[in-house]
Amino acid sequence: MSTTTLPQPSGEKEKEKAAPAEPATTGVSGARALLARPAVMAFGLVVVVLIVGALALDGNWPGALNWSSGIKDGLDWLSNWLTDNRATSPLFLYFLLHISNWSEGGVDYVFTFLNNLGWLGVTALATAVSWYVSGAGLKVRSLRIALLTLCTFGVFGVLGVWEYAMSTLALMVVAVAVSAVIGVLLGLIAGLSETGNRVLRPVFDTMQVMPAFAYLLPLVLIFGIGSPAALVSTVIYAAPPMARLTALGLRGADPAALEASRSLGSDPWQRLWTARLPLARKEMLLGLNQTIMMALSMVVMASVIGAGGLGDKVYQALSKDNVGLALIPGSCIVLIAIWLDRVTAAAGDQLDTSPGSARTGGDAGAIALEKLGGWFAWGVFVVFAVVGTLFGPVGERSWPIQWTVSISSPLTKGIESFTHSISDGIPVIGGTDVWASHFTSWVLNPMRDAMQASPWWAVLLLVAVLAWMAGSWRAGLTGVLSLAVLGALGLWDKSMDTLSQVIVSVLCTLVVGVVIGILAARSRWVMRLIRPILDVMQTMPQFVYLVPVVALVGVGRPAAILAAAVYALPAVIRITAQGLRTVDPAAMEASRSLGSTGWQQLRQVQLPLARPSLMLACNQGVVLVLAMVVIGGLVGGGALGYDVVYGLQKSDLGVGLSAGIAIVCLGLMLDRLTQSAGTGKRGGTK
Amino acid sequence: MSETAEATESAANAESDDAPRTNEASADSPVISVRNLWKVFGPKGARMRLPHDEQVKGLSQTELREKTGCTAAVRDVSFDVHKSEVFVVMGLSGSGKSTLVRCLTRLIEPTAGSLDFNGQDVLSMDKDTLRELRRHRASMVFQNFGLLPHRTVLDNVAYGLEIQGVGKAERRERAAEMVTKVGLDGLGERRPGQLSGGQQQRVGLARALAVDPEVLLFDEPFSALDPLIRRDMQEEVIRLHREEGRTMVFITHDLSEALRLGDRIALMRDGEVVQLGTPEEIVANPADDYVRDFVRDVPREQVISVRRAMRKAEKTEAGKGTELAPDTLVADAIEAVARSGESARVVENGRTIGVVDDARLLSVVAGLDEDAGGGRGEDGEAKEVAAV
Predict the structure, then answer these.
(1) Cα separation of A84 and A388, whole Å?
(2) Are both B355 and B273 inside the same structural domain?
(3) A31, A300, B206, B364: which sits with the fewest CB atoms below 10 Å from its CB?
């Protein structure tokens, strides 16, 4: 709600200030014109009604419209049916059971394979493959990546998490392979067929705004706790970017090249193999990179539904509120993320440049070396695979115990004393815990109470008016319907609680993100400084963010909000900086030639022209924050996120699934509102 | 009838690799013959009706769109392309010329009309036959090159052969030949992205040549190039045509390019051919004000020959003065006349058919010759060609 009160005054102020500076602008007719717009009037009216209603009337969702008991009965029945018929229903016998068995078998197979290779084999293999796909040869980059791989696997061993890392990797391998195949197939459908595109686009769009946390529970009920559910949820989460980017690449291919291919008499298959797919190669690799990163994020989070591995260690440590224990597997996950991201990025760049440059030189030596490198990598692979499967591992199966270092107990102690000293030990300014409790009692609670006290119909009205101001009745309809579903599910109060957390978190992230984004856009130095940090932050799985946050502010709503704000920050910074940087240079030059100061330039040229990017940043911020806030249910965020966690722990479909649906509805509403503000004629925020 | 049979036979031959060009005997018959061709974009019902609707044929493009919701990119176009000629289709952007050339191999499906390739009906071809036509008999050079960025120059040139299913060694060998032919020696292993625009278009040209087609189609191939490089490329095309005598259909919006390359030019406007004739006919006898406007700045003495500029010889002039061939350009005649200081004779087969003097030549340069006696008759003739 407070997001929405911003635009009006700031918009007016900007117009008034801009008027003397830019008298030629046609749209300037002062605040009166703005007030005369019916949408703005209506907005003001609704806000007044909202406040009066909150003070005087009963804001609760009416009992007559509350169908939660019926819905709960239905879900309970479904849940019972699923449990009872898991062994007999043909749906399970001929379809779901096969998926379950295959995924179980696949993950087990890969895990056994890794195990048979032994720690020496796995490390050597991973290093060789990373070195090869990032360009082979003696180039600095490929050697650096090989070293990174070596260190990553070494750290697994030294810190004593080898086994867990292997089981995470095994799940990753299968999940990425399946996601990539499914993603490419869907991408081909959406990229080649107009109907396919029309059908699949909205599906992909919805998948992107849907917090993964929401659909874990139904999968658990279908597949039971364990790797099949983890695998399926990972594939659902990670396949869309592959499909989306494949379709994008296929659609964006140079039409002249395709026409040339057609004019030479190629049949559709030839065209696909020789022109379309190669032309889409770059996008497809980017898609693979995203798929891998998202798969990692989900594989880690799926520990909540029994995926095991590193994520499980983090989850258990968090539920014991033991940050020291969570820190080691958490940092190993970050290492995996960095490693995978660097390797796929290097592979992408390599595909782009290397063959050309190697051949341009016509240097036979370079080509020979490259080939040799390839053979070498494959040779290592084959030798280890054969030896591993025939004779057992080279060396020992798992990392030698005497080489591990146990740092968890000193680490735990260190962290405890550290957090203790900064949580409330600092004189005068207090400490993180103190701040968090102040934040809760002075910002969060009043906000939540206000939102819960507001009459439900006024909130619906507000959303409708906001969408109207943004210029899209379709978005308004979606928003109002989604909110109505929240009420009907009997989750109005909890949703308002979650919504208040989302709004606070989005505000924090936008303020900080836009400021840093502006700095990064205006100074190369800042950009260079923060780029590596952003890179790491963006590759980190959502789950990992919880660890340091809990260490800082303890368990509770502030932790969820802080984690969400930090999680969404890199995307907001990136998009803002990118948008400001790509502003039409001619417009910038024109304004400079008119003698404007840096500040004027920013305010009058860059920010208005970068408006679409800022709206996109807002939209992305909202989507990311929501996804993280509900995960905050794991660390005391309460509200909808907690319901999902509860549902998962007790296998209570009634509670868990309604909360999941409510999360999806919230996501849809927030996304549609911010999205239409971006595309509409006059936006809402900032 | 026999011609048709022969054409069918040649089509059958064309499917084997080594004999794609067997039609030596029927040299007189056109390679491509287009009659009343229409291409209408728009809603399907209206689109199919349009070519047969007598009432709308007179409407202008905007009226047509308002009335029917359709755009006629090609309207009732007819022409023949003869063997070994360079047939230029010229027009401003939006005149439908690029659509027209795509209709020739059905990259864009024509709405109505007939289209013969060596007497074989293209519009009734099934997919496979059409593919064979594209693979072996007509290949195209594109404005934006249409190269595959992930392949080397050599593999790009060999692409057409790869699609035909030619083995790797053979197609690379033939591609290497073509790369040499278009002057890209030593660049075979580069990627298109590493070449200049002119070099890229040479690759496009080599790719089209590599399949040894009967007809080369050029769709504004040099529009994206710098003027100097464009000139180089035009000379390259002239050289290739002189060496191989391949039939070419050349689309351009550049009048000087059209005049330089074309044996005959079809000038298009709003989807219709407004005039069809040799460069000289078009410059000397514009069919209407549009064409006249178009050719206003052309240096006429570079295009018009003395046959058009001469007057009847008077008896006294019969035996004296320099002898000129009838297709000598006025520019060259001016030099001869200025040098000798007297009028020159135009001689064909040893017989004097006319005389040019300084007054006649100057009137050509000044653009006054159009009203002179010779022009009128041929104006009608030119129109007749266009209407065939």
Answers:
(1) 43
(2) no
(3) A31
3-state secondary structure of A394: coil
Contact residues of A toward B, CB < 8 A = 254, 256-267, 270, 274-275, 278-279, 281, 356, 359-360, 362
B253 and B133 share a domain?
A: yes
CB A568 within 8 A of CB A653: no
Residue (of B337, B368, B269, B20) closest to B164 by Cα position: B20
Structure tokens at B36: 């009343």
| H runs (alpha helix) in chain B | 2-14, 44-49, 61-68, 97-104, 127-132, 153-157, 159-164, 168-181, 197-210, 227-244, 255-261, 279-284, 289-294, 306-309, 330-340, 358-366, 373-387
The number of distinct structural domains making up chain A is 2
Q: What is the CATH classification number for the domain harbouring B320?
A: 3.90.1280.20
CATH code of residue A657: 1.10.3720.10
pLDDT tens for each residue of B379-388: 434 333 333 3
B105 touches chain A (CB under 8 A): yes
Find residues 202-241 of chain B whose CB sits inside 8 Å of chain A.
204, 207, 211, 217
Whether B48 contacts B124, CB under 8 Å: no
Mutate to test the interface with B, among A264, A270, A273, A281 (most CBs of B within 10 A): A264
Q: Are A278 and B150 an interchain contact pair (Cβ–Cβ within 8 Å)?
A: yes
Who wins on pLDDT, B102 or A537?
Answer: B102
List the one residue out of A139, A385, A259, A581 whose CA is nearest residue B146: A259
In tens, the pLDDT along B174-224 reads: 999 999 988 888 888 888 888 888 899 999 999 999 989 999 999 999 888
Contact A256 B144 (CB under 8 A): yes
Q: pLDDT tens digits for A407-421?
A: 667 777 777 777 666
Contact: B150, A279; criterion CB under 8 Å: yes
CB count in 10 Å sphere of residue A531? 14
Range(s) of the domain holding residue A519: 414-679
Using one digit for the tens of pLDDT, what is the confidence trace for A25-69? Answer: 444 455 556 556 666 777 777 777 777 766 666 656 666 666 667
**Residues A325, A425: one domain?**
no
Residues in B closer than 8 angstroms to A262, CB to CB, are 107, 134
Residues A467 and A567 in one domain: yes
The answer to the question of residue A368 being in a domain is yes
Position A662 in a domain: yes
Residue B35 lies in a domain: no
Which residue segment(s) compose the domain that B333 sits in? 303-387
- For chain B, what is the domain count? 2
Q: Does the predicted model carry a pTM greater than 0.80? A: no
Residue B337 has pLDDT above 80, yes or no: yes
| Beta carbons of A264 and B142 less than 8 Å apart | no
Q: Are residues B89 and B236 in the same domain?
A: yes
More confident residue, A558 or B259: B259
Whole-number percent of chain A with pLDDT over 70: 79
Nearest CA in chain B to A282: B150
Note whether residue A352 is domain-resident.
yes
